[in-house]
Amino acid sequence: MPRNFGRDAQRDSRRETREALKTAIEDVDWVYKRPVNAELEMDCALTLGDAPGQSVYIVQWGYKGKVVDFALTHRSEETVGKYDHIARYDCCHSEVHKHQYTQEGEDQNRTVIAEIRSDGTAWDTVNESYEFCYDDMFDHWQEHLRRWSE
Questions:
Q1: In total, how many domains does the chain have?
Q2: Cα 73 from Cα 130, distance rounded (Å)
Q3: InterPro entries under this entry (predicted)?
Q4: Are strands 82-92 and 95-101 parallel, antiparallel or unpaired?
Q5: For residue 24, what are the β-bridge partners?
Q6: What are the tens digits of pLDDT across the range 106-148?
Q7: Domain coverage including residue 142
Q8: What is the pLDDT of residues 74-106, one digit of tens each?
Q9: Helix (H) or strand (E) holding 22
Q10: Half-sphere exposure of 46 (CA within 13 A, CB side)
């Protein structure tokens, strides 16, 4: 007996729609976390050029040869041991994003660099974003400081 391809196609289309909707709902509840076996690879401050008191504090975790979590914080030491945060890149809320702070410590501007998705690309997204964030933090620290000072 011949198949009714119209009905089969319609049934398949409804099934695909249900599966896509189920995936979308699961993504809403999904929050990126670094792998539990990730290793802390870096936890230090690097001085910014010859600028007194200016540094970038780096915390970086790696897993299977990739950067899977990080935070880069441009900070200014106003008095010994007391730091003001100027700008920061981090991976939380399932995003790689940048904070530009005010002198009062409030978010002046928050920019999303990349969404971290649950589709199996999360580690690649974080790893690929790290180099951009690192370069921007060191190449444009004077701009971050200027914005903070405004």
A1: 1
A2: 13
A3: DUF7718
A4: antiparallel
A5: none
A6: 888 899 999 999 999 999 999 999 999 999 999 999 999 999 9
A7: 39-149
A8: 999 987 778 999 999 999 999 999 999 999 888
A9: helix 5-29
A10: 13
Quick check: is 140 in a domain? yes
pLDDT tens column, 10-45:
777 677 766 665 555 555 678 999 999 999 999 999
Mean pLDDT of 66-76: 97
Nearest to residue 100, comparing CAs of 82, 84, 83? Answer: 84
Q: Rounded to two decimals, what is the model's pTM?
A: 0.78
Nearest to 59 by CA among 88, 101, 93: 88
Within a domain: 58: yes
Contact between 85 and 98 under an 8 Å Cβ cutoff? The reply is no
Residue 34's closest CA among 1, 79, 67? 67
Structural domain contains residue 63: yes
Per residue in 97-108, is it b (16+ CB within 10 Å) or e — as a string? Answer: bbbbbbeeeeee
The HSE-up count of residue 26 (CA atoms within 13 Å, CB side) is 9
**Residue 65: what residue type?**
G
Beta bridge partners of 107: 101
